[in-house]
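Subject: Protein MgtC structure
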Amino acid sequence: MRFVETFHLWPFLDTVVSYAAAFVFGTLIGAERQYRQRTAGLRTNTLVALGSAAFVDLGQRLGGDVESIRIIAYVVSGIGFLGAGVIMKEGMNVRGLNTAATLWCSAAVGSCAGSDMIAEAGLLTFVVLLANTALRPLVDGINRIPTEGRTIEATYSVMVTAAAADAGPIGDLVVEHLEAVQLQVAELDVTERGEDRVEIAVTLVATNVPAEELDAITDHLAKVHRIEHATWQARTHD
């Protein structure tokens, strides 16, 4: 039997450690993604880390370090196709880039585990979780920095929360106020937020808008028209 010839206890236990490490670290990364309801969640990140570890470990067992390096190169390029599947374009918005990057990092974690670099796999897992959690407040803060005086073109969105039954009239009201100050509207999206609430996002054509102008519009919507939540955000194009 071929199995009897190829089975060796210590290399097998080494493989068990690599698989277990990839499973645990991939689960930690995936749990954070699942908590935030991302497209690629717990199982996807775990399987990516585990699969990467399996391929790298197999190459190392059969051909040594040189063969495992070659397989890692294929893992790096191959995971790009999987990551492309979670990137979606919705109108002028592109979603899923961070999720795709996290999948790429999960593959790196699995590759480290498959190469028996367990400490490095654990360190990378910690850094990935740090990037996806600790940097979030910093990103939100940067997005709120006024863009007046900058030459960077951006896409601006004005967002309001309203009752589902009032979505149509309030959406028209927001568009009317924006067009009244010569801001061209590109699209309007309505997203459910609970059983009877919706978020209305009105996206402008890419331009450079003074922050004070958008602040004045959102303040007017909140104070004069009694809209419970009105805000805006900017997304740069570079």
